[in-house]
Design goal:
Length: about 350
């Protein structure tokens, strides 16, 4: 009999639930995005997000069960994101997960959201070659991990300031483009010249596997409003906007690709996977597929629905943790920060 796990995700601005069988077959994957609620603030407002999760969580869980054609009694466990994220948001998913686990006497499994992005590679490609290098790039995180085996990961580097998605969101705001910035910069970049503007790539020295994007954002601000940002805001011409968007996107992608290549070579990775909202970016996907120095690596570019936040990756982690007896109890607490890597612990 297949092990069927319900995965619940509410750490940021997606209310999501999914049922996955044996960690490989996605039976349902329901995501409700709150983007329209946060658009006008150009970022996620924690209180607004947690209120919306509260309204949506039960219908979303019900939808995930209906789509999978299952009753809750037929589940084998409930997995829920308990870190990292906004505490008020995490609490909503956790309350739902605990209630279901209690009511139907099911094991409760606490999942690290960033680790779930890293392990999404296994959902997209069950025969993942190890060690596997994984880039997780979203609005809140940008880090690289080496996976030696499922649940055995090491963080190789992380951002020292802004996340890649945050750099795109803030860059888009400076360019007067809508939130979220990643897709709007990607759109605006169409027909733009990637080399029109020479924007900086912070590589942080020849050995570093960390990232830094705040200098790039400041450089864009100075391009727009003069050194020190003392000049008044000016209206950009259409082509100038396209060129700036294309050059800015290229600077972000360049920094990511550069560090991926460096890490893959140094750690002799056999495969490469990307996750998080920024992994949806077509230019990043194109550059990785074309990169000569990554040839020979198994390249796993998960489908869009598995890149951004979803319940399927949480259910996958639930499956892996359940097999190792890494089960939580009702004392499971939300935590704002991620696990640094290493072998998974039960809580
Ligand atoms: O993983 P995600 O959905 O949520 C979290 O932040 O956890 O990632 C959202 C981030 C935002 O910063 C957004 O601008 C970026 O992912 N993003 C993209 C694209 N779609 C979303 N960045 C580049 N290109 C995209 N197509
Ligand atoms: Zn995420």
């Amino acid at each position: 009999m297949a092990l069927r796990i319900l995965g619940i995700e509410t750490s940021c601005d997606e209310t999501a639930a999914a049922v996955v069988a044996d960690g490989t077959r996605v039976l349902s994957n329901v995501v409700h995005s709150q983007i329209h609620l946060h658009e006008r603030w150009r970022g996620v407002v924690p209180e607004v997000a947690s209120r919306s999760h509260t309204m949506r969580i039960l219908p979303i869980v019900q939808q995930a069960l209906d789509d999978a054609g299952m009753a809750p009694q037929e589940l084998d466990a409930i997995a829920v994101t308990h870190r990292p994220g906004m505490i008020g948001c995490l609490l909503v998913g956790m309350a739902a997960a605990k209630a279901l686990a209690l009511r139907f006497s099911l094991p409760l499994i606490g999942v690290d959201h960033v680790q779930a992005h890293v392990h999404t590679a296994l959902l997209a490609e069950p025969n993942l070659r190890m060690p596997s290098l994984s880039l997780v790039a979203s609005g809140g995180h940008t880090a690289m991990y080496l996976m030696r085996a499922p649940l055995d990961t090491e963080r190789l580097g992380t951002t020292r300031d802004d996340a890649a998605g945050e750099a795109l969101d803030k860059g888009a705001a400076l360019l007067g483009l809508p939130y979220p910035g990643g897709p709007s910069i990607e759109n605006a970049a169409q027909g733009g010249n990637r080399r029109a503007f020479d924007l900086p790539r912070s590589l942080l020295g020849p050995d570093s596997l960390d990232f830094s994007f705040s200098g790039l954002k400041t450089s864009l601000l100075y391009r727009l409003r003069g050194p020190g940002a003392t000049e008044p805001e000016r209206q950009l011409g259409e082509q100038e906007l396209r060129d700036l968007a294309a050059s800015y996107q290229e600077a972000v992608v360049d920094a990511l690709v550069h560090k991926i290549v460096r890490a893959a070579e140094r750690h002799e990775a056999q495969s490469l996977c990307i996750g998080g909202g920024v992994a949806r970016n077509a230019r990043l996907r194109e550059r990785l597929a074309a990169e000569r120095r990554l040839r020979g690596l198994q390249l796993v570019l998960p489908p869009m629905a598995l890149c951004s936040d979803n319940g399927a990756m949480i259910a996958l982690m639930g499956f892996l943790q359940l097999q190792r007896g890494l089960i939580a109890d009702m004392a499971l607490e939300p935590t704002a920060t991620p696990q640094a890597g290493g072998k998974a612990k039960s809580r």
